[in-house]
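From the pipeline queue, job 12 of 40. The input is one protein chain; the requested action is below.

Action: predict structure.
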Amino acid sequence: MQDHLVKAIAGNVRVCAAVTTRLVQEAIERHHCCHVAGAALGRTMTGALLLASSMKNDEALTVQFDGHGPLGKVIADASPEGYVRGFVVNPEVVLPLNEKGKIDVGGGVGTDGLLTVTRFTGLRNPIAGNISIESGEIAEDITQYLYKSEQTPSSVGLGVLINPDYTCIGAGGFLVQPLPDATEEDIRQLEENLQQVRPVSAMVHEGLSARGIIQEVMRGFTVEYLEEVPLQFRCKCSKQRIREVLSSLRPEDLELLIEDGSAEVSCHFCNTAYHFTKEELEEIRAEL
C-alpha cells in the first residue's frame, strides 16, 4: 500500500487519516534509528502531516519536540501537498520497554520542555505556538497543543509498529475535530468510538487504508470523503543549498577546509552527504 492521506467530513466532524509506513521506514533507514527513535520520529512526521492537511498549498509547518529526554530534539517539517521530512538528534538511543510493555517514546522524548508548532503561511513572520510537553508520547501532546494553543478541541491518534530488525510494518494516524455545529449526540458518539478504537499501527498492519481508519473511528456517522493525497518523504536540500551555506562561512574557516583538501556536509533532515572537492571550495572562495 502506498502512503496516503484522506480528508473527510462526517456530519459535523472534520476527520483525516494517513498511512505512513513507507515514509517512516525511509526515515528509519536514512537516520539509522533504533526502535525508540524510529517510533518517536515516525509519530512526529505523521502528526505533522495531519496538522498540515488543513493548510493551503505552498504553506508548511514544523513540529518540534524538545523534552530534554535522551533522544534530544525530534523535528518534522510537513506540507499540505503531502511532503514530509524529519530527524531526531540521537537516533541510536536504546531504552527498555515501558510499564505497558511498549516502546518507551515518552521516556525517550522527555517531559521537561516544549512542543512547538510553527506555521509558515506566507506572512512576513511565521506563526508559532507552544505548550509544555505532558507525556512525550506525541499524539497526546499534539491533542493538548491544539486545545490549549489553537483553542481547537481535537483527538489525535498515532502509531508506529517496528519489527526487531528495525523494519516498520505499520504506521499511520488520524485527526478528528468537531465543527462548531457539532451536537451533543455527535460528541457522545465520537467519544464512544474513540474509547473503543484499536491502535492505529495495528489497523495499518492489518491492511486498513486511510479510509478504513476513518470508518473505524467514525462508526455511526455518514462519511463524505473529500480528497486523497499521496505522501512522500522529501527533503528540500540540494548541493546548491549546501554550497550557499559554505559561502556564508568566515574566510578563515573556508581556508581550513581548502587546506584539508575537501569537505563533506550532511543534511540534518535527510542525512544526505554532499562532497565538495578542493577545486569547488576554491571556486567558492574566488566568488567571495
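Job complete. The domain at 239-287 is CATH 3.90.1280.10 (CBS domain Like).
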